[in-house]
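User: Structure tokens for this complex, please. No commentary.
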Amino acid sequence: MQSLPIGRAFTLIEPGPVVLVATNDGRNDNVMTITWTMVLDFSASFAITTGPWNHSYAALEQTRECVIAVPTVDLIDTAVGIGTCSGKDTDKFARFGLTRAKAKHVRAPLIRECIANIECRVTDIVERHGIVVLEGVAAYLDAARKERRTIHAVGDGTFVVDGRRLDRRDMMRAKLPAGL
Amino acid sequence: MQSLPIGRAFTLIEPGPVVLVATNDGRNDNVMTITWTMVLDFSASFAITTGPWNHSYAALEQTRECVIAVPTVDLIDTAVGIGTCSGKDTDKFARFGLTRAKAKHVRAPLIRECIANIECRVTDIVERHGIVVLEGVAAYLDAARKERRTIHAVGDGTFVVDGRRLDRRDMMRAKLPAGL
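Assistant:
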């Protein structure tokens, strides 16, 4: 995993991939699958929607940090599996054979099997909507990985895999943040 | 366009497609391209991130309503074009040859060229994050349309087109809302 400039971290979330959110509650690591995410600005602010019904929520609320990891299509059954059991009674890292790497700024682990990881701090929780606001503080990309296609949850139990990429950089030049 | 049960509207937004947001400020229709969206619940609540720098924001704030329309890949240059000019000085419906249809519950128009449209009310604005919370009140799908692939903005001027669809409904049955 190589370092990715934090100013590019939003490009990992903007396409709308399924993500894994890793937490550490002071004793145990846990991970949940989240498909409700949104970029908030070009300075690595993101929102996820969750709530007390998720076991990870208490850790997010108390530790104010997490790692967002982006799985590719080869991990679809891992992502679905993580989303259909609870950290309350399951060590998901063991059950799904995930390899942890140490993060720099947060206690939650990076996930080596994922193509990208973002270390995040919780900067706000909008409780009335279950919106957790995150700020990315470090990002990593596994640039050597061959499988790069992420997955998009439809919400009905089906998922759409990335297809081809279209380039409209020339049309959008004036609207893009500098350096992209 | 045929009616889509409002309980399924979140499946239009959850995969993370680029969307068009149509408004009417009492005099003129306008439309903007938004790539920062998020589902908030299974009852057709969505969030979009925007702010006063977008001409449409004043109409959203004042009229408390809009239409979210979902374009497919054949409309990518329309979506990018809409996102790179302003309703302040441009009649975007004329410029991009968009066909309006009358909505039932809101004054903003539906867009016939899009595969799906959701009539929405603004239920909240979280000003400190630029988050506009919407509630879908009616949804429509153009089921006869052959091109159904939506587009996902990466944020750097490139876009990922939908690829193939994977079915994990059996694995997820217990987690899906009833009736999906």
